[in-house]
């Protein structure tokens, strides 16, 4: 099958505007006869459901949470990017586009990425109108800060709660449509299959998580906005309920999974503390605006800190290695996430990790506290402040900017980050891979759309910080309301889709058989035990660094683990009741297949790019070595139990020059 990205003709900066002006439309009197299913109620899902309902479509929205406000978008901390140029520091739509293409190591589509940059400014206006309490400067203008991989300040934020505030805005818009009857909201429902009729997505099979009942729901089109698959690693910054099941069921029904090996390791997470830890906690990238990353230069200082004979504050400035500032002077501590993560791993691999496990580096705010303290003292008319005055005012400024993040760190670790540097280490955070979609955000299955982190389209091999919220809201508010019309305009004479067709009944039967098969195993090993083992395999052999030998070994181990899973897993309780262990069991079964596909994709891509780092392909100084002539393509995988088939979409760069990424 030839992959058709459906990118419009014309100059890059005119594609979206011209396309909107010429695409097929659905008249208002026809919209009310068309139904759309939206799965997921995070930023992408809630904004899409609200926007489609506002246009007049009948929408059914589904979440496995008890409220849309529980979606994982709420956990995003640092901010959302937009090319407003409020700081007058040289930002523009083109610069945001270029930074995103470069940050993704030249492995994303130009047209999709430019559209994202183009609509970014509209997102901020939309959210301000909804009442999102973005931080503001003294004069009342919205404030900005910097994130990794850029040299301008374009990140809008609400302290360390940006995702929560944006989700409340989207939830408010969704709630209005629920109240008006345009959206029918199904909470505590999990999608277990996609129904395809005559090549078109026409509905879903869901499990009511309270009663255990299997239900059939139909519509003219299905929109998936279900997030990423980072929990395949078990330990990640994702909420424990985040999963790949809806997207993976789509793959089982013929949709292609694109670039699955592109997973992002976030550099600033609280390090692992024990073998039975169930998730990891992110420390916002915004902290790298003011925090300096370092390790001791001397091994004896490392040992003294590990044994608690020395505090990090005891290490003099000349004995500290601020390795990001040393290696990347142009960007310093604000290099992209993949670069910062690899640098931290390399420092720890050399034996300079500062915690008991040797897997941590410092994120230090003392310099920022002193800098801000002097400025604040001066504003108070104190021109020769003593050290205690400087510290008092400096802490107040840092608390105002990052207070909830510092509080969260102290509650988890017991250390006061105002007095002693944070300890951080990279952890799985985001997945750039996802369902393959065209310019309309439609998968290769007609009528099946994917938004936000669920698709692959905008970030290439590495996502820049604060761009996930941007993509989710761009897709939901400003892209899918237009592009879904390209499909639905051909459906205006299609009557409501019945949910008792042979295709629905067959899909329901297969879901029931899958559940029965799991429940009948009656083994002795818990679901979490298998999931933890899968995560160890994935982190060890397909984590921050990969090589051919390890990937081959990892695939064999996953296959063996999967065989054991279907023979030994134990699921307590009954299928026809509230049963979280059954929920997990279904999800972990999908994670195992997804994990194998991630390894296959990493094996195929014999280069290093962004978050995909093959040890065989690196420069002399340890940076990623791309091979553009062979691998400038999107990997779109068609699933097959024995050997998945790879389809390639060639990436064409007409507006940026393909060159080696440098942040030095």
Automatic annotation (TrEMBL):
Catalytic activity: a quinone + succinate = fumarate + a quinol
Highest taxon of source: Bacteria
UniProt domain Fumarate reductase/succinate dehydrogenase flavoprotein-like C-terminal: residue ranges: 531-663
The keyword Oxidoreductase is annotated on this UniProt entry: yes
Record protein name field: succinate dehydrogenase
GO cellular component: a single term: plasma membrane
InterPro entries for this protein: FAD-dep_OxRdtase_2_FAD-bd (IPR003953), FAD/NAD-bd_sf (IPR036188), Fum_R/Succ_DH_flav-like_C_sf (IPR037099), Fum_Rdtase/Succ_DH_flav-like_C (IPR015939), SdhA/FrdA/AprA (IPR030664), Succ_DH/Fum_Rdt_flav_su (IPR011280), Succ_DH/fumarate_Rdtase_cat_sf (IPR027477)
Domain FAD-dependent oxidoreductase 2 FAD-binding: 36-469
GO term, biological process aspect, one: anaerobic respiration
The keyword Transport appears for this protein: yes
Membrane topology: Peripheral membrane protein
Cofactor(s) this protein requires: FAD
SUPFAM superfamilies given in the database record: FAD/NAD(P)-binding domain, Succinate dehydrogenase/fumarate reductase flavoprotein C-terminal domain, Succinate dehydrogenase/fumarate reductase flavoprotein, catalytic domain
Residues at the active site: 337 (proton acceptor)
Keyword annotations from UniProtKB, A to Z: Cell membrane, Electron transport, FAD, Flavoprotein, Membrane, Oxidoreductase, Transport
Gene3D superfamilies, A to Z: FAD/NAD(P)-binding domain (3.50.50.60), Fumarate reductase/succinate dehydrogenase flavoprotein-like, C-terminal domain (1.20.58.100), Succinate dehydrogenase/fumarate reductase flavoprotein, catalytic domain (3.90.700.10)
EC numbers: 1.3.5.1
Signal peptide: none
GO MF annotations, alphabetized: electron transfer activity; flavin adenine dinucleotide binding; succinate dehydrogenase (quinone) activity
Family: Belongs to the FAD-dependent oxidoreductase 2 family. FRD/SDH subfamily.
Cellular localisation: Cell membrane
């Amino acid at each position: 099958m030839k992959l058709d990205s459906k990118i419009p003709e014309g100059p890059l900066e005119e594609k979206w505007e011209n396309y909107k002006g010429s695409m097929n439309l659905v008249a208002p009197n026809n919209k009310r006869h068309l139904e759309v299913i939206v799965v997921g109620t995070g930023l992408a899902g809630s904004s899409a459901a609200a926007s489609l309902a506002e246009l007049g479509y009948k929408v059914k929205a589904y979440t496995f949470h008890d409220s849309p406000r529980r979606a994982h978008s709420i956990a995003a901390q640092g901010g959302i990017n937009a090319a407003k140029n409020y700081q007058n520091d040289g930002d523009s739509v083109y610069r945001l586009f270029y930074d995103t293409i470069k940050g993704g190591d030249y492995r994303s589509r130009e047209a999709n990425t430019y559209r994202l940059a183009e609509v970014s400014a509209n997102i901020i206006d939309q959210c301000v109108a909804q009442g999102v309490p973005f931080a503001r400067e003294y004069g009342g203008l919205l404030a900005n800060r910097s994130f990794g991989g850029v040299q301008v300040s374009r990140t809008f934020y609400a302290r360390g709660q940006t995702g929560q505030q944006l989700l409340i805005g989207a939830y408010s818009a969704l709630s209005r449509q629920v109240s008006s009857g345009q959206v029918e909201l199904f909470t505590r429902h999990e999608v277990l299959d996609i129904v395809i009729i005559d090549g078109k997505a026409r509905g879903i099979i869901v499990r009511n998580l309270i009663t255990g009942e299997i239900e059939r729901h139909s519509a003219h089109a299905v929109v998936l906005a279900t997030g990423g698959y980072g929990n395949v690693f078990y330990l990640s910054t994702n909420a424990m309920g985040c999963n790949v099941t809806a997207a993976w069921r789509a793959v089982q029904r013929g949709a292609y999974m694109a670039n699955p090996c592109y997973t992002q390791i976030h550099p600033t997470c609280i390090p692992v503390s024990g073998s039975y830890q169930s998730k990891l906690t992110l420390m916002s990238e915004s902290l790298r605006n003011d925090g300096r990353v370092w390790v001791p230069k001397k091994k004896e200082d490392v040992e003294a800190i590990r044994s608690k004979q020395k505090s990090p504050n005891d290490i003099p400035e000349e004995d500290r290695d601020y390795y990001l500032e040393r290696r990347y002077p142009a960007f310093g501590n604000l290099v992209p996430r993949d670069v910062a993560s690899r640098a931290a791993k390399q420092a720890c691999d050399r034996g300079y990790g500062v915690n008991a496990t040797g897997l941590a580096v410092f994120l230090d705010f003392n310099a920022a506290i002193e800098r801000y303290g002097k400025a604040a003292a001066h504003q108070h008319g104190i021109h020769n402040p003593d050290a205690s005055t400087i510290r008092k005012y400096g802490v107040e400024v840092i608390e105002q900017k990052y207070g909830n993040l510092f509080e969260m760190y102290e509650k988890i670790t017991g250390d006061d980050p105002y007095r002693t540097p944070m300890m951080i280490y990279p952890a799985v955070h985001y997945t750039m891979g996802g369902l393959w979609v065209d310019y309309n955000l439609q998968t290769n299955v007609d009528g099946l759309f994917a938004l936000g982190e669920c698709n692959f389209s905008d970030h290439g091999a590495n996502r820049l910080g604060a761009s996930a919220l941007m993509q989710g809201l761009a897709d939901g508010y400003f892209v899918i309301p237009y592009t879904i019309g390209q499909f639905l305009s051909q459906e205006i004479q299609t009557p409501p889709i019945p949910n008792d067709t042979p295709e629905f009944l067959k899909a329901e039967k297969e879901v029931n058989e899958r559940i029965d098969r799991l429940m009948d195993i009656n083994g002795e090993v818990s679901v979490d035990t298998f999931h933890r083992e899968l995560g160890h395999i994935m982190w060890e052999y397909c984590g921050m660094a990969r090589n051919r030998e390890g990937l081959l070994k990892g695939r064999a181990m996953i296959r063996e683990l999967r065989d054991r899973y279907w023979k030994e897993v134990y699921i307590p309780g009954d299928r026809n009741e509230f049963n979280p262990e059954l929920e997990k069991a279904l999800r972990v079964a999908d994670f195992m297949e997804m994990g194998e596909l991630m390894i296959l994709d990493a094996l195929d891509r014999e280069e290093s790019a962004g978050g995909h780092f093959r040890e065989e392909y690196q420069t002399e100084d340890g940076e990623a070595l791309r091979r553009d002539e062979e691998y400038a393509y999107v990997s779109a995988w068609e699933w097959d139990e024995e050997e998945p088939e790879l389809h390639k979409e060639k990436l064409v760069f007409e507006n940026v020059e393909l060159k080696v990424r440098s942040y030095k």
